[in-house]
Amino acid sequence: MSQASREPRRLVVFGVTGQLGQEFLDELDDTEWSISELVGVASSESAGTDFDFRGLDGDVTAEWPPLKGYDLVVICTRGVSALEIVRDALKAEVPCLDLTGALATQTEVPLLFAQNLEGEGASAVAVAPLLAMPSATALATSRILTALQTIGSVVRAQGTVLSSAATHGRKGVLALSQQSIALFNQTEEPLTGPAGQAVAFDVIPGGGVDVPRVRGELGRWLVEGTAVDFTNIQVPTFVGEGISLALEFAEPVDATALVSSLELGEGLIWIADGIGSRGLAPVEEDGPEPVGPTLRDAAGSGDVLVGRLEPDETREAGISWRLWLSFDPIRLSASHATRIAGVRLGLS
Ligand SMILES: NC(=O)c1ccc[n+]([C@@H]2O[C@H](COP(=O)([O-])OP(=O)(O)OC[C@H]3O[C@@H](n4cnc5c(N)ncnc54)[C@H](OP(=O)(O)O)[C@@H]3O)[C@@H](O)[C@H]2O)c1
């Protein structure tokens, strides 16, 4: 380990009390990086509360600290302009990693998919003043498309994204819980919550992830010749995200080659049909075994679970296939953010 990588680092995390902020701290916890100071910022609602990092309590502050002298600012906020934090970081000449999507369309800011963290990409990351991370939907899709590059050219990918309440932050999860209880008890009208309408026991077409953002992010990453689009649906689950992904290839590919490429793909776990990865037992002894991967199967994993390979029977054999992906968007994002932070800080 070099002298520079042994030097303790000082970090500021905005949004430390949120779902992503907490998960990012967990990921940092698992590294062996020497971190001498971690300032956790949240809204005035959380001022005076604590956050846990490596077994020690830190005070949550609602006062934005002077950023000069810190090694990295990480933005995991919601409901506050991330660009104001970015401006402060630029003024203080401290590198800033945005996880909110606020910088995703600014072409002068590197948008960091896995491929941009290697070779020349890593050298650029090491000096860039601002860094942007793609949404979890774009990250998951990019892993699939990267893996499939080994067997053929995907000319079109069309995804139907199923988003949980966690897409709307901690308050989204709380709203789903309160709405569900209210409906069960038939006590009061369901509360609206941050989704803008009640989500419990309902499915909202057009709800959930920000499709123009995902399309724009993948547009910056994809090579010419691949078209990608999504439709979004909010479903009444608490956590996780699923995508039913229809793929069209330039030339027919066979199922065995497709599965092999996905089995080898970085950050992917292929789940063969037949068993749920949670090991659920069939309801009837002789009945079919439950199949996955479900959103709960993926909870807590930084990988993308992929399965349910099906041919599109309306097309020429081998040209068009459907896949099902399930992942934990918060864990996936936190783990990728930690990887970016490691490259920026010269620690990995
Ligand atoms: N949820 C996901 O699946 C996911 C995945 C990847 C990226 N993201 C992005 O990550 C960001 C956070 O998402 P989340 O799900 O973690 O949201 P969240 O649970 O609602 O957390 C939001 C965080 O922002 C803080 N905050 C709000 N106003 C603030 C202010 N004025 N100053 C400082 N901090 C403030 C909140 O503090 P309080 O606790 O005091 O309110 C909280 O810590 C969003 O931009 C989201 O798009 C989310």
Please outline the helices and strands.
Blueprint (H helix, E strand, L loop, with lengths): L2 H4 L2 E6 L4 H12 L4 E7 L8 E4 L2 E6 L10 E4 L6 H11 L3 E3 L20 H9 L2 E3 L3 H13 L5 E10 L6 H16 L18 E2 L5 H11 L5 E8 L6 E9 L5 H10 L3 E3 L24 H4 L5 E8 L8 E8 L1 H16 L4
Parallel strand pairs: 1-2, 1-5, 2-4, 5-6, 6-7, 8-10, 12-13
Antiparallel strand pairs: 3-4, 8-11, 9-10, 11-14, 13-14
Helix pairs in contact: 2-10, 5-7, 5-10
Bound molecules: NADP nicotinamide-adenine-dinucleotide phosphate (NAP).
The number of helical elements comes to 10
Bound molecules: NADP nicotinamide-adenine-dinucleotide phosphate
The unreliable regions are: none
Total number of β-strand segments? Answer: 14
Describe the largest sheet. Answer: 7 strands, mixed
Instruction: Give the C-level CATH assignment of the largest domain.
Output: Alpha Beta
Shape type: globular
Per the CATH scheme, the topology name of the largest domain is: Dihydrodipicolinate Reductase, domain 2
The domain count comes to 2
Order of helix and strand elements from N to C terminus: HEHEEEEHEHEHEHEHEEHEHEEH
What is the CATH H-level superfamily of the largest domain?
Dihydrodipicolinate Reductase, domain 2
Main β-sheet, spatial strand arrangement: 3-4-2-1-5-6-7
Mean pLDDT: 92
Strand pairing plus helix content: what structural class?
Answer: alpha/beta
Whole-angstrom Rg = 21 Å
Task: Measure the end-to-end span.
Answer: 10 Å
The portion of residues assigned to helices is 25-40%
Q: Write the CATH architecture name of the largest domain.
A: 2-Layer Sandwich
